[in-house]
Design brief:
Layout (H helix, E strand, L loop, with lengths): L3 E8 L14 H7 L5 H14 L6 E8 L8 H16 L5 E6 L6 H9 L2 E9 L3 H6 L6 H13 L3 E8 L6 H13 L4 E6 L2 E2 L3 H8 L7 H18 L3 E4 L13 E3 L6 H23 L7 E6 L4 H5 L4 H10 L3 E6 L7 E7 L2 E8 L11
Parallel strand pairs: 1-2, 2-3, 3-4, 4-5, 5-6, 6-8, 10-11
Antiparallel strand pairs: 7-9, 10-12, 12-13
This protein binds iron/sulfur cluster.
Length: about 375
């Protein structure tokens, strides 16, 4: 039976955050949202657990979202952690995770988190470029990220790193350099968020004044596809590609501009799949085959939609780009996810297979 893992999210509006990241509307949210009490945390976990069919192969985890967990006082952290720790001890959840800033990690702080059973720590890195960090109002440096990541791993926690694309002063090259540096920090997983312009943020003001222009959807898809390749090749799971952290809970109707798309991840994965098929066609050409006639691809069922692309965009683009007479997909369940087979070209059967994680990072745009 396939394993199922449930996340029980608890949003922590951080009233006391002394920073003002340009993309963040936490101050607005904190003004209206209630800081969870110990009882609220217990109740929320209980309510979620009552809907989760806890049986063999099913696990659950409590995740405190909201950006700056360890920037709160120990007393405030304790209020939230105690009820989660009790439920962890009872064996009803498997782990507790918190999200925080790279400059709010210390050895004592990690000991404190460990004493309550926290096993996963996510850091909001956003960029490893010092200028981008300054122009985004982050208030921490790339060295804070390096040092805190090292400490978190050394102390035996699982490490998650979050980055953003499209921050003020950012570029495709800077985002790729950030991705590569994150790989070198060996996180257990990453999240990638294209910047959205949200009401009530400094970025919204800058956008209205014309001094900040968000990425177009197409640019965001391209850059994120390249980043996905960077992490795929390193074997680091990208567990999220889409809405930015402060919108996890409250973004409805508040996005003024930016590369918002409800199926953003699928767009990115489809872009990578297009590149994979183009790569296979190049291999066929290297073998002396003429690229002409009908193209037949073999893929596992779960990958069909990303290979097709939204409204068959990938297949139409391949047909046009390579002047093919048609494209067809056949399902082959012996193939693994991420594999595409070039089954036949112009009626000639072939056996060329490509694995997504083996794709190189392109020098030019995909
Ligand atoms: S993203 Fe985090 S650190 Fe930045 S302003 Fe929002 S709560 Fe504060």
């Amino acid at each position: 039976m396939a394993k199922q893992h449930y996340i029980i999210p608890i949003f922590v509006p951080h009233r006391g955050c002394p920073h003002q990241c340009v993309f963040c509307n936490q101050k607005e949210i904190a003004g209206v949202a209630t800081q969870p009490s110990r009882d609220m945390v217990s109740r929320t976990i209980g309510e979620y657990l009552s809907t989760i069919p806890l049986q063999a192969g099913v696990t659950a985890e409590v995740a405190f979202y909201g950006g700056s967990f360890t920037a709160m006082s120990r007393e405030e952290q304790e209020v939230l952690l105690k009820p989660a720790a009790a439920i962890l001890k009872a064996g009803l959840i498997r782990n507790i995770r918190v999200s925080t800033r790279p400059d709010c990690i210390s050895l004592e702080g990690l000991d404190f988190l460990r004493s309550y059973g926290v096993g996963i720590i996510e850091l909001g890195v956003q960029s490893m470029n010092p200028e981008v960090l300054v122009s985004s109002g982050r208030g921490h440096t790339p060295d804070d990220v390096r040092e805190s990541s090292r400490l978190i791993k050394e102390q035996g926690f699982a490490l998650g790193l979050q980055m953003m694309v499209g921050l003020p002063g950012d570029s495709r090259e800077i985002s790729l350099a950030t991705g590569m540096e994150l790989v070198s920090l060996e996180p257990d997983f990453v999240r990638i968020y294209p910047v959205l312009v949200v009401e009530g943020t400094p970025l919204a003001e800058a956008y209205r004044q014309g001094s900040y222009l968000p990425l177009a959807l197409e640019e965001a898809v391209e850059t994120c596809a390249e980043l996905l390749l960077v992490f795929n090749r390193a074997g680091i799971p990208v567990i999220r590609l889409g809405l930015q952290p402060s919108q996890e809970i409250d973004y409805d109707g508040k996005v003024l501009a930016g590369p918002f798309h409800p199926a953003f991840r699928e767009l990115v994965e489809s872009r990578v799949a297009y590149r994979q098929v183009a790569d296979l066609l190049e291999k066929a050409r290297e073998q002396g085959l003429e690229i002409t006639g009908e193209l037949v691809l073999a893929v596992p069922a779960r990958d069909v939609s990303i290979i097709r692309g939204q409204r068959n965009a990938n297949l139409s683009a391949l047909q046009k780009e390579y002047d093919l007479s048609g494209t067809k997909i056949i399902i082959d369940e012996t193939m693994k996810r991420g594999e595409i087979g070039l089954y036949s070209l112009d009626g000639k059967s072939l056996n060329l297979i490509s694995q997504r994680s083996s794709l190189g990072i392109p020098n030019k745009k995909l």
